[in-house]
Design a protein that fits this description.
With 448 residues, the protein is α+β, with helices and mostly antiparallel strands. It has 9 helices and 16 strands. The strands form 5 sheets. The chain has a 5-stranded mixed beta sheet, with helices on one face. The protein has 3 domains: 181 residues, no CATH class; 153 residues, Neutral Protease, domain 2 (Orthogonal Bundle); 74 residues. Helix content is 29%, strand content 24%. Helix 4 packs across helix 6 and helix 5 crosses helix 6.
Amino acid sequence: MSARESWYPNLNGFGEKSLYDLTFKVPPPNVVISIGKLEGQTSEAGYAVFHWVTPAPVAIAGFNYGRYKKMDYPDDITHYEISGYYLTELPSSLKPYQNSAFLSNMAPAAMTKFALDQARAQMQVCTQFFGRAPYNNVYITEQPNFSFGQSWPNLVYLPISAYIDSTQRWLLFGHIDTNFTGFVQEVTPHEVAHQWFGHGVGWASYHDQWLSEGFAEFAAGLFLQKAVGEKWQKDYLDFWERQRVRILKKNNYGVSPNDAGPLWMGLRLDSPNSEQAYQGVTYSKGAYILLMLRSLMYDEPGATNRDQGFIDMMHDFIESHRDSPASTESFKAIAEKHITKQMDLQKNGRLDWFFNEWVYGTEIPRYGFKYTLQPDEGGKTKVHVELTQSEVDENFAMFVPIFADYGNGMVRLGQLGIVGNATRVVDFTLEHKPKKVALNAYKDVLER
């Protein structure tokens, strides 16, 4: 049996849930970290025995195995019980570098604390935006794979690269690898978010797996905005630019992931001419769709919490699917329960227009933006803007956010609606003169 292969009888993977009672016998000093809760640890005939039991039915079972040390990391805000498991020795892939200056001083406990700090912060962000996680215990474990993470019910595998700091990675690669730096930034919050999307809420069919992978990817972006401090803008914008490139970048055959077909096709997007289409569309476009819904639901200035409408929708989605898998249409129904007046373009309480464009379609708009500023009475400023939308059909509609910079970063003013290949001219007045006016400054809308 190799890592991550099927190791127990099952009929339908994520399609069914069961209770698990698992007993592992291993040679000491190895330990086993499993899904569920550790109910007992004994010894038998020279073996260490670990007994793990799931308190609630789960869809899949996994475990990690090795000479792990444990570090508890309490959360006084959410009260989840978070623990980290780390190895004191380097994996075989990094053994050739163990005497080098840049890995010999690697501090596993310190790096585990960093990973646990990220995990705890993401648990807090996700709890605020999506509701309570389905499990009170979460175990964060190191694995020797360098560029692969995976999430199980209350058990997360993180790659060894997540435990190596940026200086060590630079010395290891001999250069700054921006794509890999992005992966390291994303992997912990993405895998932790699967406790909600994938395990808390499953998916009904391959058509709907974007509700797991795309939503977890969106949550990684949310982490970069909400959990890294005041100077979040660059990493956040870089994250969404990576998603945009993953969706639109053409391969050697001249085919981009988005060209391969609509999001709803799932695994069928991959072909000999579009081998990365599933990844680019299910993860990145799926994430962007949730980001755009958040943008559409964003409240006007003055609201206590401008994200409250989106938060209410996501809490409803999680609670409505704790006992049944989600489909694209069931998520759409939840979104329609929380539709805003502006989003109700067809005046029928439905979001057919949005889902037809972004989930069941492949069109992605290109935007042009011009503006002028003129002084007005009382020290106010008149703003004249021209918004152009192109490379879409005549019925393609979208609301694009507009921002002003008064010297302390971008402030969202509102949204401009536009339909088809058209130019819209709008005039409005601001109380103070901005340094700059910008369209889609935080990449809330997917564009070419």
